[in-house]
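Review form for a predicted model. The reviewer records the input and the model, then writes brief findings.
Reviewer: anonymous (R2)
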Amino acid sequence: MAITRRQFAAGAAALCVTGALGATLSGCGSSAETSAERIYINGKVFTADANAAWTEAFAISDGKFAAVGTTDAIKALAGDKTETVDLAGATVIPGLIEGHTHFGFMAAMHSLGYTEIPAGITTLDDHLKQVEQFVADHPDYDQYVLGNFSQELDLGAEQLDKICSDKPVACVGMGLHCVYVNSKFMEAGNITKDTPDAIPGETYYVRDSEGNPTGKVVELPQTWNAFQKAIKVDNAKVREEYLKLQETYHSFGFTGVAEGGFVGLDEGNMLDIITGIEKDGDLKMVVCPASIWYGHTVTELAEVCERATGNKKKYTTDLVRPGTIKMWADGTLGAHSALMREPYADKDTCGATLSTVEDMIDCAEMCKDNDLNIHYHAIGDRAIENVLTAFETVGETSGTKSIAHFQIDMPDLVERASKIDGLIVNMTPTWANSTVTEEVEPLGDRRDTNVLFKEAMDAGITVNFGADSSGSEAIWNPSMIMAAAMIRNPDQEGFFLKGKPCSFEEAVCAYSINVAKERRIESEFGSIEEGKFADFVIWDKEAMDKATSNGEEGYLAAMKSGDIYFAKEVYFKGENVYTRS
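Model under review:
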């Protein structure tokens, strides 16, 4: 309930307003039982509510927003024991929700000592030197997992065995869509000549002339099925790393995460860890996990649906909200496996079909029958087309329907998507980066169709943002992603490819309420509204304006200086979980 200035006009001491405190809020504020615990006044508060409204103040009690409105209205809710916080003109936004992350995967990998090789390494020899140094530096590790490898190396067990032959080694490609492993990894994962490929020619083990796996695993889901078999985690260490990551995410302004799936991990085990953290009182964000379908050679769709339904029943709590199935329609641009209508500019292929339209229809129907959300990864224009066909065929669903990435968004696809009722698309504005040659060069003259988030917004599509990264902390930073969305240039390619910019308000909604809508938690999270959990961020709007007011020049200067972190204070359920020093 938004409280207006008229409702709390001066002199109306007898006026009472029913709020979310579980009692009537007295305008005179004399009763400790009926007044707010804490009020914030004199701010610039962007609520991200249905009207995208700005206001000045809000009240909090029992970890929820008790009232939202003008400073005069909210001051009237103060009692003798009410704490008053003067925002002094500071900007406040809802707690951000990361729209696409692999948070649990990152915690598990960090528990194994996971490290990423530096950016800019291109040759095979230089990649191998990084592995050699890492193994030499950590002789006590039981297994070695490295990341950020080029996705098209001629690398496998033959080279990796020379560096380490007695422990599993896994070198993960950029984008998590391929992995290079040694013989010990294949032994631990029981990967042999007789191990079937998930989709022959699409997602598979590279093999020698006799059919033996060479140690290069191409594309999801084959990569992560192998990973789950070979790499073992220590739950206590995963818990420790999960809490460390939570602190990092808080520093960015996040109070929630939408999981893109616990890739390569046991879902039940990860959910046991997360709900255990909540039982201990240490989970300070809402977590929305997803169940992954890896393909028919791993498990049938009906089994995944049964698992997702079981997870929803067993693990749903105040802060853990399962109930989504994730599947891949295609791969990535860098691996030339995103499914395109036309061949790539630098390679005679149109990419990989990781799920057929028929499989997507079947999955959506199962989700419809079991009240689950469906989330399809689709990057290439043909893959997006296939997903839209599936959604059009199924029609209305009981859960939400969403597309992760929607990256090569041709005008006809945007138009089609806009006509699918309730469709939500998740996008990453920083992916339209002209300097990432591995992702951009294969597009050729289709560069201007890359991550057109504002065009999708203008067509009436609900868009949310996410980093979809397991890489460096800077890549997860929503300040950087939101700022990038606000400086896009529709007329000129520079650091970013051509495209329309969005407003500050649109960027905030894309990182809050629109993510909550996708995971069906918008009645409790995602905006500053009465009755919702009091998740909010005091935002350094002045620094953000400085970084975005001069287009790319200001943005790049902020990146170079490291001054592109705009969350000053972060609150979850009314509790301060981060304050920038």
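Findings: The chain has 20 helices and 28 strands.
Further findings: Confidence is low (pLDDT under 50) at residues 1-33.
Recommendation: see findings above.
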